[in-house]
Automatic annotation (TrEMBL):
Pathway: Purine metabolism; IMP biosynthesis via de novo pathway; 5-amino-1-(5-phospho-D-ribosyl)imidazole-4-carboxylate from 5-amino-1-(5-phospho-D-ribosyl)imidazole (N5-CAIR route): step 2/2. It is an enzyme of class 5 (isomerase). This is N5-carboxyaminoimidazole ribonucleotide mutase. The gene is purE. Substrate binds at residues 14, 17, 44. GO terms for biological process: 'de novo' IMP biosynthetic process. Residues 6-157 form the PurE domain. Keywords: Isomerase, Purine biosynthesis. It comes from Desulfacinum infernum DSM 9756. Its EC number is 5.4.99.18.
Length: 166
């Protein structure tokens, strides 16, 4: 079976980030969005990270998701080399529990935006949902699936009331 071309690139600074970034992959699988994953570091493999970002658009990638911990510069470095939207996920891998990664990811200088999500798995999940929302602007089928996802989520929350009714 031929593999569909990836529309989303999920990058992470280390294999130690994989357990968090799997949450993003899971959402993209749920929505049937083809993606690829790679370990590339802004500090340990700077040339390869920059090249990945520079070539991503011409390979058909539409959105990049980047997760990193500590002084998390991966999302920013990728954003500096592409016009694709870059979504950053701060990872809580350091003794500062991700606050360092959050500030490193979100505090981009004017001109180079990174859409920064929450710290950790919840942020990784939201990064993928945000990527799906970006793709859904030009894809009615995906937009319909997002609508159904939100309706299911609301129904799930409301159903919990049955359990707490006196
Ligand atoms: C960051 O440093 C990575 O994103 C990771 O969260 C953190 C630690 O990496 P390892 O020392 O576990 O490889 O660049």
């Amino acid at each position: 079976m031929e593999r569909k071309k990836a529309l989303v690139g999920i990058l992470m600074g280390s294999d130690s980030d994989l357990s968090v970034m799997e949450a993003a992959a899971e959402v993209l699988r749920e929505f049937g969005v083809p993606f690829e994953m790679a370990i590339l570091s802004a500090h340990r493999t700077p040339e390869q990270a920059a090249r990945y970002a520079a070539e991503a658009a011409e390979r058909g990638i539409k959105v990049l998701i980047a997760g990193a911990g500590w002084a998390a510069h991966l999302a920013g470095v990728l954003a500096s080399k592409t016009t694709l939207p870059v979504i950053g996920v701060p990872i809580d891998s350091s003794p500062l529990n991700g606050m360092d990664a959050l500030l490193s990811t979100v505090q981009m200088p004017p001109g180079i935006p990174v859409a920064t999500m929450a710290i950790g798995k919840g942020g990784a999940r939201n990064a993928a949902l945000f990527a799906v929302q970006i793709l859904a602007v030009a894809d009615e089928n995906l937009a319909a699936r997002l609508k159904a996802y939100k309706a299911d989520m609301a129904a799930g929350v409301l159903k919990k009331n049955e359990k707490i009714d006196p």
